[in-house]
Predict the structure of VOC family protein.
Amino acid sequence: MKITLHHLNLCSGNVPGMEDFYSAVLELRPEPSLAGARVTTEGYAAPVAFLSDGQTQLHLAETDLKVGFRTGQVVNPLERGHIAFRTDDIAAFKRRLEERGIPYSDYGQWAMGGWHQIFFHDPAGNVIEVHQDMNG
């Protein structure tokens, strides 16, 4: 099973302002691979911007404290943001968490078309996403 750093998600009440900041100050550019990939019918339709340095992505999402309630999930990835890793075997990664007694929320293909996403907390309460791109 391979795991790689994929993106950092930051939450804000002002996504356009954050996008302008990261574009101007750090010269990040829109991430073309995610054009049209967003799913907005599963409990979260707020603004999101996808930027990249050409290797690692930065996702800027509007803070939403009620996502967990609307989706019935324990972990809310849009409260404070999260760090995300990509795997080539989400089932094996879920088994790894279960073997270690780490609870997780399995969002399935919830926010991004074709991505099977799970979210869990590290020991300090930070949210971690692990996803598999089921399209490739």
